[in-house]
Design a protein that fits this description.
This protein is an alpha/beta fold. It is built from 20 helices and ten strands. The protein has three domains: 331 residues, ABC transporter transmembrane region fold, CATH 1.20.1560; 132 residues, P-loop containing nucleotide triphosphate hydrolases (Rossmann fold), CATH 3.40.50.300; 70 residues, Rossmann fold. A hairpin with an 8-residue loop joins strand 1 and strand 2. The protein is elongated.
């Protein structure tokens, strides 16, 4: 069946756990609800007792009626069976109610734990993980994880019933009972033989489900690009491939899990025939009453059906264990960014120093190798260079998004690894190339980093950018809905909202990874005015793509393969005729001409 799994992907952080370890860790989530679990067990015990009493009562009634048939006996039997049925319903209701509450709490706790751990993973984790697959683990697998307790409860219910019935039957006729019990190890052996393969196929099914979720999420997120290139059919073809894979894996899982029932059916049928034959001989020999014979034949059904459920329990339990394995793998994935201390810095001055920093995203390629740089408080540094030179890596390391492998990064003469991360990042303002906006209003997005800010504070921050003129282009001003990922506002407006968010946060260090997307000269001017307002009095590192930003920087750093090849102010670097002059002539110069034509004289200096 190797062809069935072609295309099935596992994640880099997946790992295997022993059943004992999984059971122990699952138990940790149920431990807080031990009281409710005990009540559930009591309800199950009562259900088992009542369930066992029904066939016993009917068997005795048969003997009584056979001996002395009276209406009183029949009426008493009817009322007794009805009472047992009502009691069984009440105990079952209590059991189901308790189980629902416990499962709900456990799902809540597991999702809380796994989502919290996922959110606090480093950016390097999200660089390699598909969003849809993470969603599948957090939502679907946590639900399947909780099903373990339901299965376990049903297991004990059936187990109690078998124990009670077996004890009574042994009292009535030991030989028949031994025959019945002798078949149990066969059922157990059959069930356990499916354990390993059941775990494997259920785990594969969950991986296939996560894969198709990831592809759907990616397709919907990138639908604009797909339509622009007329790639809808290609997306559908990929979906079909994943859908067929999911079908094949699901088919295999169904075959494996359902094979156990026909095998158990053959076993139980053989046992039925053997018990019926031996019991009939006992009746003919006068060693067994008709009522006891009926009880044994009923017991065969009552015995085998719970035994079938117990046998299938081991296969079904693997579904819960597979889900638990995927959830725990995500929870146990270690963070790469490791803080060695928890120094709380007061309001920082903004001095940044790289000392022989070594950094790589993976083991194959080194981005920085012995990199050193010093940035003074309040200094604006523009970083330029070709794609892959290491520009964005510098900014992300200062923000402590990634772990560097060697050297030191110091903030105000303190090793960045010794700082308390939350308090440090509160003093960092970071704007990415494509600013992300959350669904909601412009006001809510500006307030995102400072949720306690008043409406007047938000308005003040917005008005500080281009004198607030950009708000006039929004249909409802600050109350304009931005849509999913900012789809209802322009790219330039998203940048201005992101800059207003930084102004409201008021950080000491500002990091900007400038976008390369084209905007009209008027919007460009507004963005530049906003940048000037944001960078005023702050240490700023700008991954520069705009000529205006480069010219306004105190110092320009030219990177090539993770090393500084030139540094200095704009005019000085131009006069050297080196790497920066080459970049300027091939990229910035034509940009200058376009903007001068569009704005009159903004960059004509």
């Amino acid at each position: 069946m190797g062809f069935i799994l072609d295309g099935l992907e596992t994640e880099s952080y997946d790992r295997s756990y022993a059943d004992r370890d999984l059971a122990r860790r699952i138990g940790e989530f149920f431990k807080p609800y031990l009281g409710r679990m005990i009540l559930t067990a009591l309800a199950l015990l009562c259900m088992s007792i009542v369930g066992a009493l029904s066939p016993i009562l009917i068997a005795k009634v048969i003997d009584w009626v056979s001996a002395t048939p009276t209406w009183g006996i029949l009426l008493g039997a009817t009322l007794g069976v009805s009472a047992l049925g009502a009691m069984n319903w009440l105990f079952n209701y209590g059991h189901e109610r308790l189980i629902t509450i416990i499962v709900g709490h456990v799902v809540y706790d597991v999702r809380h734990r796994v989502f919290e751990h996922t959110l606090f993973q480093d950016l390097s984790f999200f660089d390699t993980q598909a969003t849809g697959k993470l969603v599948s683990r957090i939502v679907s697998d946590t639900q399947d994880f909780s099903n373990v307790v339901t299965l376990t409860a049903e297991f004990f219910s059936q187990f109690f019933m078998i124990v009670l019935l077996t004890g009574f039957l042994y009292y009535v006729h030991p030989t028949l009972t031994v025959i019945l019990i002798a078949m149990a190890p066969i059922a157990a052996a059959i069930a356990l033989s499916f354990r390993k393969i059941a775990r494997k196929v259920t785990l594969e099914a969950k991986q296939a489900n996560a894969q198709i979720n990831g592809q759907i999420q990616e397709s919907v997120s990138g639908i604009m690009v797909a339509k622009a290139f007329r790639k809808e059919q290609a997306l559908f073809d990929t979906f079909q491939k994943n859908n067929q894979l999911s079908y094949r894996v699901g088919w295999r899982r169904g075959i494996v899990l359902n094979t156990i029932f026909p095998i158990m059916g053959i076993t139980s049928g053989s046992a039925n025939g053997l018990v019926a034959y031996v019991a009939a001989l006992a009746v003919f020999g006068g060693k067994l009453s008709v009522g006891d014979w009926y009880l044994f034949m009923q017991a065969v059904g009552f015995f085998w059906w719970p035994l079938l459920n117990i046998a299938s329990f081991w296969s079904q339990l693997q579904d819960g264990f597979s889900a638990a394995e995927r959830v725990f793998a995500l929870i146990d994935h270690p963070k790469r960014v490791q803080q060695r201390g928890s120094i709380l810095l007061p309001r920082i001055r903004g001095k940044i120093e790289f000392k022989d920093v070594v950094f790589s995203y993976n083991e194959k390629e080194r981005v920085l190798d012995g990199f050193s740089l010093r940035i003074e408080p309040g200094e604006i540094v523009a970083v330029v260079g070709h794609t892959g030179a290491g520009k964005s890596s510098l900014a992300k390391l200062v923000a402590r998004f990634y772990e560097f492998q060697g050297g030191e990064i110091r903030i105000d003469d303190q090793d960045i690894r010794m700082l308390e991360l939350d308090s440090y990042r509160k003093q960092i303002g970071y704007v990415t190339q494509d600013p992300f906006l959350f669904r909601g209003t412009v006001r809510e997005n500006i307030r995102y980093g400072f949720p306690d800010a008043s409406d007047s504070d938000v308005l003040r921050a917005a008005l500080h950018l281009s004198r607030g003129e950009w708000l006039e282009d929004l249909s409802e001003g600050l109350d304009t809905e931005v849509g999913e990922q900012g789809s209802r506002v322009s790219f330039g407006q998203r940048q201005l909202i992101a800059l207003a968010r930084i102004l409201l946060k008021n950080p000491r260090i500002f990091i900007l990874d400038e976008a390369t997307a084209s905007v009209d000269p008027f919007t460009e001017a507004r963005i530049q005015e906003g940048l000037t307002a944001v960078m005023e009095g702050r240490t700023a590192i700008v991954i520069a793509h705009r000529l205006s930003t480069v010219r306004n920087a105190h110092r320009i750093i030219v990177l090539d393969h993770g090393s500084i090849v030139e540094e200095g102010p704009h005019e000085e670097l131009l006069s050297r005729g080196g790497e920066y002059a080459s970049l300027y002539n091939t990229y910035f110069r034509h940009q200058s001409a376009e903007y001068v034509e569009g704005t009159g004289s903004m960059f004509n200096k």
